[in-house]
TrEMBL record:
It is found in: Membrane. InterPro entries: Glyco_trans_14. Keywords: Glycoprotein, Glycosyltransferase, Membrane, Signal-anchor, Transferase, Transmembrane, Transmembrane helix. GO terms for cellular component: membrane. It comes from the Eukaryota. One of its GO terms (molecular function) is acetylglucosaminyltransferase activity. Belongs to the glycosyltransferase 14 family. The keyword Transmembrane applies. Pathway: Protein modification; protein glycosylation. This is Uncharacterized protein. It comes from Octopus bimaculoides. It is a single-pass type II membrane protein. Its main location: membrane. Pfam families: Branch (PF02485).
């Protein structure tokens, strides 16, 4: 029954060579796709040229939404309204594959 109600598409991302560095000296970070944001933060994401350039750059990555929100939040030189001003939390994980 679900096959008629949903649509999906399987696609592989292919890239030849290395990706260019992020624009505007932005340091990339990864975080959650779920965020609480101020109106100023959202307006910055939509209106600011640096945010638009980074959105285009991150578009062909594996998780662009998780990268976009976190990266904009952790780059103080962009002066994003409502962004985090402290040091980002660095978690290191050890994975065991059995």
């Amino acid at each position: 029954i679900f096959e008629f109600r949903t649509k999906y598409r399987y696609a592989k991302f292919r890239q030849i060579g290395l990706k260019s560095p992020p624009p505007h000296n932005i340091k990339v970070s990864k975080g959650s796709v779920h965020i609480v944001a101020s109106r100023g933060y959202i307006e910055f994401l939509i209106m600011d040229r640096r945010s638009q350039d980074f959105t285009k750059w991150v578009r062909d990555t594996r998780n662009p939404d998780e990268t976009l929100f976190s990266t904009m939040n952790h780059n103080p030189h962009l002066r994003v309204p409502g962004s985090f001003n402290g040091m980002p939390l660095m978690n290191y994980f050890i994975f065991l594959n059995i």
